[in-house]
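Here is one such tokenized protein:
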Amino acid sequence: MTDKDFFFVYNYKLSAFLKYKGISYITKAINPQNNKMFTMYVKSDELQSAINEYKAAKQEG
């Protein structure tokens, strides 16, 4: 596996939405380059579908 197999989320609201959808992250950590917390997920169709749903809801208002 490489970095391309993972999706890094720095947005707390998106991470909470993914948790609500039943998608678990692999790890939660702090990026040493910028000191920001992130959650890391394995890329999958289920993950992409949930991200698309989140983006669509966000655009609606």
